[in-house]
Amino acid sequence: MRVIEAFLVIHPSEIVTLILEDHVKSHHGLSMLFNKTGLMRYWFPVSLMPRNGEDWPRVRDMIKLNHRLLVFTSNRSKESSEEIAYQ
Question: How far apart are CA 77 and CA 75, in angstroms?
Fold first, then answer.
């Protein structure tokens, strides 16, 4: 995760997408990891993700808002419990 954070610092106009096969069992384990490594400052919030065929925001707007990290999990329950998007 620190490598991803370093990449985002060095490349301020890049967007990174992570699709995780999630087997983390600890309570809020993934969100704690993203907080600890400083990646939350780049987080694209689940609440802003398009639903029902809506369009994604423009890349320039995502960069402007620093929403440059898209994270998806294979665990459906984490979308509501940790605000990590279900793939």
Answer: 6
CA dihedral 34, 39, 41, 45 (to 10 degrees): -60
Residue 44 CB burial class (10 angstroms; 0-12, 13-18, ≥19): buried
* 0.85 exceeded by pTM: yes
How do the pLDDT tens digits run along the chain, 87 residues long? Answer: 899 999 999 999 999 999 988 777 777 778 888 899 999 999 999 999 998 999 999 999 999 999 999 999 888 888 888 888 888
